[in-house]
Amino acid sequence: MKVKTSLKPRCEHCYMVRRGKTLFVYCKRNRRHNQRQWRGHGKNVKKTRKGR
Ligand SMILES: [Zn+2]
C-alpha cells in the first residue's frame, strides 16, 4: 500500500473509500493501485525528497 499526500484513482477499477479521516484508494484489478492518504501535521506538509 502506497502512502501519498494526494490520492488519485489510477484506473477505472479504482475506487475511493473514506475511513474516518483517512482516505483510501482500492483497486480490484490492480492491487498496486491501492493507496492511502498520508495525514501529516495538517496544513503544513513538507515535501520530502526520496529517490525514485
Ligand atoms: Zn486501479
Largest sheet: 4 strands, mixed
Shape designation: flat
Ligands in the structure? Answer: zinc ion
Which consecutive residue ranges, at least 5 long each, have pLDDT under 50? none
SS strand fraction: 25-35%
In short:
By secondary structure, the protein is mostly beta strands. It contains no helices and 4 strands. It has a domain at 2-37.
Give the helices and strands, then pairings.
Blueprint: E1 2-4, E2 14-19, E3 22-27, E4 35-37
Parallel strand pairs: 1-4
Antiparallel strand pairs: 2-3, 3-4
Bound molecules: zinc ion (ZN).
Zinc ion (ZN) is lined by residues 10-11, 13-14, 27, 29-30, 33.
Characterization of this structure:
- This protein has 52 residues and is an all-beta fold.
- It has a domain at 2-37.
- It has no helices and 4 strands.
- It has strands at residues 2-4, 14-19, 22-27, 35-37.
- A 4-stranded mixed beta sheet has the order 1-4-3-2, with no helix packed on it.
- It is flat, with a radius of gyration of 12 Å.
- The mean pLDDT is 86.
- Residues 10-11, 13-14, 27, 29-30, 33 line the site of zinc ion.
